[in-house]
Amino acid sequence: SLCVLIGANYKGPALKPLQALALLALLFPLQERSCWGLNPSSGDLEKSPHSDPDSWDVLHRNRRSWVWNQFFVLEEYTGNEPLYVGKLHSDVDKGDGKVKYVLSGEGATSIFTIDENTGDIHATKRLDREAQAYYTLQAQAVDRLTNLPVEPKSEFVVKVQDINDNEPKFPDGPYLAGVPEMSPLGTMVVQVVATDADDPTYGNSARVVYSIEHGHPYFSVEPKTGVIRTALPNMDRETRDQYVLVIQAKDMVGQMGGLSGTTSVTVTLTDVNDNPPRFAHKNYQYTVLESLLVQSVVARIKAADADIGSNAEMDYRIMDGDGPGMFNITTDEDTQEGVIMLLKPLDFETKSSFSLRIEATNRNIDSNFLSLGPFSDTTSVKVTVEDVNEPPVFSIPLSKMVVSEDAKVGTSIGRVSAHDPDNSNSPIRYSIDRNTDLERFFNVDALSGVISTAKPLDREANSVHNLTIFAIESRITLITVLDVNDNAPVFAIDYETLLCENAIPGQVIQTISAVDKDEPLSGHRFYFALAGPAAGNLNFTLRDNKDNTASILTKRGGFRRREQPVYRLPVLIVDSGSPALSSTNTLSVRVCDCDSDGVALSCGAVAYTATGLSTGALLAILGCIITLLVMVLLIVTMRRRRKEPLILEEERDIRENIVRYDDEGGGEEDTEAFDMVTLRNLNVIRDPNVRRDVTPDTPTFFHYPSASRPSYKSLPDNVVFREFIWERLKDADVDPSAPPYDSLQTYAFEGSGSVAESLSSLESLSTDSDQNYDYLSNWGPRFKKLADLYGNSDSTTVLS
Questions:
Q1: How far is CA 388 from CA 234, 340, 391, in A?
Q2: Which of 305, 375, 537, 700 could be a cystine partner for 276, CB 3.0 to 4.6 Å?
Q3: What is the DSSP string of 392-412?
Q4: Bridge partners of residue 136, in order along the sequence
Q5: For 778, phi and psi rounded to 5 degrees?
Q6: Is there a contact between 328 and 339 (Cβ–Cβ < 8 Å)?
Q7: Which residues lie below 8 Å from residue 409, measured CB to CB, with a gap of 6+?
């Protein structure tokens, strides 16, 4: 026979207490009955050879070849080695290795493996009962050599034993629910349902209990059914209309170690008609013009109702009033306002105000809440009619008058009369519409309304005249110019502030105020402060009294007239207009000598008297002053003397000046305007007219024998210029008519020493040159003059 051992030699990881208990519960029956089973053929009960021998003798039956029992495997095994499931053994197997065990069916080789020699069955993968609860397998013992069965193939089941590895879940969460407000205690709100994927037939892994984690003390939940109920009576929607609950479902009947899941339940309190309408005021006042058209809206009033929807719908009606038939009220279905309409024309002169009593009532009243009523409210409405300037009204709309055609001009025909229907009763002025009297046959007196003829009438030409008379109110129009803030505030008066020398710090020496030509509606408000750098001065400070005045106070004492007789304080004044304007006013403070009562005796500067100086010292100072005056007069007199200057001009000037020579000469044709040869031989050619009566001893940079003085041409260029300037300086120094002030003289003097020599046409005539200038004749008519001057012609001829 084949014996099955389950759970023997378990080498997996340590099991949890619950898992160990479950495993022992499964193995204990198997251990007791050992390898008992039913013979497939006979159905007799048979026992394994390993069982008790005494029992075996008593229960003697035909022995079957296979003994089977259900296999059980715990799910979610997490060990590192394969999980031992059980052992197969056949009586045919003598332990000589001739029998081989073969396993087939669901999960064979992929999940379950069998040792072909020993028959040990192992699970190689972690099993999940929620994915597959059991596996059906076939076992067979075959000859190892021939592969022929030595035992018939039989089928057995491996059941996956459940553990608590799934928490409860709410498939329909989160929940939305509603319950009427003011519901009694215990009113059902909603039922929540949690499911657990664990085996409900084994243990408490799938037995769920409910609890409320958030939502106390307003709601409760039944632990077994998940029904949520109200835990407080009379919850008011107008106070709070929504609650969010957190419900927990926990398996293992809520015991420690159980798994849990949560869901949220949003409970909304639905409205019921538990609030009556209420007017915000007991009296309302409205004003309308008497010219308001019929069927126009006079006013809108509304009674507040804390309910919503149909529970806030209401009807309005006029209960009584002193203007029957004048007004009507209806309900605006969109806003639930009462709309007061005008049914008849208004006349201010007839009735200037109306009083109405209006009631608002709920349409849909819930009988369960009548105790909270009454569900209506009343208010008073006063409608004031405002006067409108109405046109004058004629006493007779159509007047018929008769006049003879021979009536003289100015004859009175009749009189029209009109009055002002308004209470003002303004005077009336009359006039004729000239479109109805184009030929001006008639006149009307503007004040009395008397109609008279203006021209002779002819009945045969026109027997009937149809005139239109205008009646116009005479009103006095008063135009008021509104003020804007366009004037800055200034001192109210010209202040004369006196400061005693014996004043103490913090003493008020002046109180100032301001005026403004503007007239603001809210009155003037001025702000005072010291302007600019005076704000930080060490002598005075300003205190704004916040009443459009300010006080000037001293910061120190010890003021002295001798040091500073007058102080000037710039005071900034700002008004409160929009935009604000400001001005800076100067306050003069005079230091005075005062008596013990603070009365000023003398003010202003004090004459300084020198002390400690003798009469001789004063006379010496006076003599010095006189001497200085005499010297100044002499200098002025000398400067006024008129002498011939070195440089002659038509207009003389005693100031420093620059003399400029701007004479260009006559060009190529002018050979006598300026002779450069003369300039180059200054040491030979002298002007006999120049005065040489005074010759100062002026040193030169180069000393030459007095017998002979070299010409300028023989000197180096830098010496030529230097000597030239010294010669001119000596001439100016010895000139008695030279001006007594500095002057600048320009000398047109060229040096010598250029490699190209002088480029002047004047100089070129006085030098010998072998250069041929015939090519100038080929340059065109513009250079013809130069070609004639510098061509082959003799230079002496040109100079002549």
A1: 56, 21, 10
A2: 375
A3: PEESSSS------TTPPTT-E
A4: 157
A5: -90, 0
A6: no
A7: 453, 454, 455, 456
657-658 and 540-544 beta bridge pairing: unpaired
Helix (H) or strand (E) holding 583: strand 582-594
Q: How far apart are CA 590 and CA 541, in angstroms?
A: 16
Cis peptide before 17 (omega within 30 of 0): no
Residue 282 corresponds to which tokens in the numbers above? 């007991």
Distances (CA, A) of 344 to 240, 320, 358: 47, 17, 19
Q: Going from the N-terminus, what domains does the chain have, and what CATH number goes with each?
A: 70-161 (2.60.40.60), 278-386 (2.60.40.60), 391-478 (2.60.40.60), 490-611 (2.60.40.60)
Cα angle, residue 607 at apex, residues 605 and 613 outer, rounded to 5°? 150
CA atoms within 13 A on the CB side of 375: 24
Amino acid 316: pLDDT = 94
Q: What is the mean pLDDT of each run of 10 residues along the chain (800 residues)?
A: 42 41 41 34 34 40 48 77 82 82 85 84 83 84 87 84 84 92 92 87 84 92 94 91 94 85 94 91 94 93 91 92 88 93 90 93 86 88 89 84 90 89 81 90 91 90 90 76 90 92 91 92 90 87 93 91 90 91 93 87 65 74 92 88 53 52 53 49 47 44 46 60 78 72 61 54 53 76 78 45
Long-range contacts of 453-462 (CB under 8 A, 24+ apart): 453/403, 453/407, 453/408, 453/409, 453/410, 453/411, 453/413, 454/409, 454/410, 455/409, 456/405, 456/409, 457/403, 457/405, 457/407, 458/405, 459/405
Q: In this structure, is the dihedral angle defined by the CA atoms of residues 519, 520, 525 and 529, taken in order, positive or negative?
A: negative
- What residue type is assigned to position 555 of the chain? K
Tell me how far apart the alpha carbons of residues 181 and 307 are, in angstroms, rounded to a whole number. Answer: 11
How many other CB atoms sit within 10 Å of the CB of residue 670? 11
Task: Outline where 641-756 has alpha helix (H).
Answer: 676-680, 717-733
